[in-house]
Design goal:
- The protein is α/β, with parallel strands linked by helices and 292 residues long.
- It is built from 9 helices and 11 strands.
- The strands form 2 sheets. It has an 8-stranded parallel β-barrel, surrounded by 6 helices. Strands 6-7 form a two-stranded antiparallel sheet.
- Helix 2 packs parallel to helix 3.
- The longest helix is centred in the middle third of the chain and has 17 residues.
- It is globular and about 50 Å long.
- 38% of the residues are buried.
């Protein structure tokens, strides 16, 4: 099983290029960083954390303040690509609807070149209604938009003369380079809730899955469901790569890691603390000893 790490990637944490090199030196397989372009300040009729002013999340908890400090994932991962040789570099997750496909296709293909084909494209449709609204995206159509934008990206990555016409995206016939090193583009990992709708999106469109819950028994059943749907669709279920993302920042127990290894997933992603360089390195060392 692959073991990856996740960093909130703020300006007051360990720099992403230094972190990627440190993680690679300790044998971790991948580094994952998130994305929010911005966090809208709560309005007068919206709940806000009395201490930080942060808004309520879709899961009914106040967002930690690091969400408003997230760095750009593509710039950070490009810097990481320049100093590493083996570790995979990934978004967890890119809010695909908040980018134009022409720009996004070029960003990703460039990182794939800089990393010699080590980029993994984790995406989500988003949950912050006002954030996506500032980008002109409606909450009600976010998944239709995400599917269409992903389709447009794949055309741009694949075709010599690419064009696309859809409900949300129009691209005249064009040349765009570079093409990704990975044929057809990097693997696309969908971050979804573990729901029938979420599993359907993965079965139809994903090369991998980031279930945004963590119940090993439930996840095991859900993986089997996605595999069955993929078979019905004529897709190879053995090609699906499932990554279990530990959302909590405390050290995971040996029991939890053992259950994760038996879940049928191919990867565990361990969250690093929001800390300075010394604190992050300590967590990396502790995890390396635990999973080594």
């Amino acid at each position: 099983m692959h073991i990856g790490v996740f960093s909130f990637n703020t300006e007051y944490m360990m720099r992403t290029d230094k972190l990627a090199l440190a993680a690679e030196e300790r044998g971790f397989e991948s580094l994952w960083v998130p994305e929010h372009t911005h966090i809208p300040v709560p309005r007068g009729d919206e709940q806000a954390d009395p201490d930080t002013g942060m808004p309520m999340s879709a899961a009914d908890f106040f967002l930690p303040k690091e969400y408003r400090h997230l760095s750009d994932p593509f710039t950070a991962l490009a810097a990481a690509a320049a100093v590493t040789k083996r570790i995979r570099l990934a978004t967890c997750v890119c809010l695909i609807n908040q980018h134009h496909p022409i720009n996004l296709a070029k960003h990703i293909a460039t990182i794939d070149h800089l990393s010699d084909g080590r980029f993994t494209f984790g995406i989500g449709a988003g949950w912050n209604v006002r954030e996506m609204g500032n980008h002109g995206v409606k909450f009600s159509t976010r998944w239709r938009e995400a599917r269409e934008r992903l389709a447009a990206l794949r055309v741009l990555w694949r075709e010599e003369k690419a064009s696309f016409s859809g409900e949300f995206v129009e691209i005249d016939e064009c040349w765009q380079y570079p093409k990704p090193v990975q044929a057809g583009g990097p693997p696309v990992v969908l971050g979804t809730m573990d729901t029938p709708f979420g599993r359907k999106q993965v079965a139809r469109h994903g090369d991998g899955w980031l279930p945004l819950t963590f119940d090993v028994d439930e996840t095991r059943r859900s993986i089997a469901d996605i595999h069955a749907q993929m078979t019905e669709l004529g897709r190879d279920p053995n090609a699906l790569e499932v990554s279990l993302f530990f959302l909590a920042d405390e050290m995971q127990s040996d029991e939890a890691l053992s259950k994760a290894r038996d879940s049928g997933a191919q990867r565990i992603i361990l969250r690093l603390p929001v800390a300075d360089e010394r604190g992050v390195l300590k967590a990396l060392d502790d995890y390396a000893r635990q999973v080594g």
